[in-house]
Amino acid sequence: MQNFRSLQLANQRKTFGLLLGLGVLVFVVIYAALTYFGKTGVGLIPFAVGLSLISVWGSYWASDSIVLTMTGAKELAYADNPKLFDLVQEVCIASGLKMPKVAIVADSAPNAFATGRNPEKALIAFTTGILEVMDRDELQGVIAHEMSHVANRDTLVSAIAATTAGAIALLSDFIMRMMWFGGGRDRDQNNNQNPLALVASLIVLILAPLAAVLLRSAISRKREALADATAVSFTRNPAGLRKALEVLQRDSTVVLQRSTAVAHIWIESPLDSSSVSKLFATHPPLSERIATLRKMEANPIN
Amino acid sequence: MSSTIIVLAVLALVLVYFIASYNRLIRLNVNVDEAFSQIEVQLKRRSDLIPNLVETVKGYAAHEKSALESVVNARAKATSATTVADVAAADGQLTQALRGLLAVSEAYPDLKASSNFLSLQEELSTTENKVSFSRQFYNDNVRSLNQSVKTFPGNLFAGVAKITSREFYEVEDPQDRKAPNVKF
């Protein structure tokens, strides 16, 4: 039986497992760095983690205003689009969340996103295209999906994933550079090191950033699947969101600005195409999401 | 010495756990009250739309007396209800009556084309949605409160805090009873 409750639970567990995986990866990288460099590696760790923290958490803190600028979204007032605001209010009542800021992006490609560091600071934005092509039920599904990102605090989750992946990338980058410059392994300490352990730690350091990116993409995909399930828990109408995703599937136009920095926040990824490997995708394929929603339609909860 | 510290630590943990569960129970109870007042807010909104709707329909279809009267009567009843069961019953009747009135309106093209009616229709449909979402939110909250009242450790505090399980908000609606459509 797949219904929204079981799907929500499953996706929350999977995210937790993946975040744990990222945490373990950090330890593995640190361990590898220590094996390879001995004590000189230790000083790098706080530096890499600190740098990554500062860069990611700054953007997390001001996520609403930064994303507004990057996407060129304009904030709306009730009088600008009463129907859209009514729909958002409906979803707020269904979810018990506070009314978010509502914004619009002048773009003919149908798409939408949510951001903001907490539910009080939430912002959801829609392209002019999505407002044109979708009917009431479909838009309600899209809004519920975006409000689910707010409810599940996905800005926070993706900031944690980005920080960890960033720290791993920086750490392995530093170590590689140190190697090129013949950076000092503590030879006096590591003379009796097993050469196999040295090779293994080198391989770990080379592969770790790739693994971190893969884990980060997997987390993003699980959060999208979770948002679909949570959206159904709000509207109890899987058909609305399913039809909305079908509209997106039929539509071939893609949001103009293909900035990779904000690709993960849209409901339909502007980047993932068949040419990009499924493993690196920030979103599950639309066909898979539609199939899951159909299963939810078959197993309603009253 | 060390064993007394362990015993004290365990006791402290148990105490914290009980305080947290007690607070959770209180919070769930408050959530139910808030959710119910949200239903009342939305019902009030709908109630406020009705005089305008009735006037507009009268302008084009004055002889549809029974449909108009049932809406007016259901609205009057809804304003006097207070308990959950009464509010739900009156809400169900008004929903039914409104549906009847909108169905009748279908036969009057002039009415359907009037700008006043069109804007009322959008307002009514969003209000209907808000009413039904607030019911759903209330019932979800009642569901978690009742679960907590009946299970450990909530059941220990329910008596002390004078918190009992609550009634679900159930609306009599023949449309809900219909067998679901099955597509293959």
What does the model show?
The complex is a heterodimer of chains A (302) and B (184). Chain A is mainly alpha-helical and 302 residues long. Chain A has one domain. In chain A, 65% of the residues lie in helices and 5% in strands. Chain A has a four-stranded mixed sheet, sandwiched between helices. In chain A, β3 and β4 form a beta hairpin. In chain A, α4 packs across α6. The radius of gyration of chain A is 22 Å and the shape is elongated. The model of chain A has no long low-confidence stretch (mean pLDDT 82). Chain B has a single domain (31-172), classed as LemA-like domain (de novo design (two linked rop proteins), Up-down Bundle), CATH 1.20.1440.20. The longest helix of chain B has 60 residues, at 2-61. The chains are: A mainly alpha (302), B mainly alpha (184). The interface between A and B is medium-sized, with 15 and 13 residues.
Descriptors for this entry?
heterodimer, A: 302 residues, mainly alpha, 11 helices, elongated, B: 184 residues, de novo design (two linked rop proteins), 7 helices
Summarize the structure.
Chain A is mainly α and 302 residues long. Chain A has helices spanning 4-37, 44-61, 63-71, 82-95, 128-133, 136-151, 154-180, 187-190, 195-235, 238-250, 286-298; strands at residues 74-75, 101-105, 112-115, 123-127. Chain A has one domain.
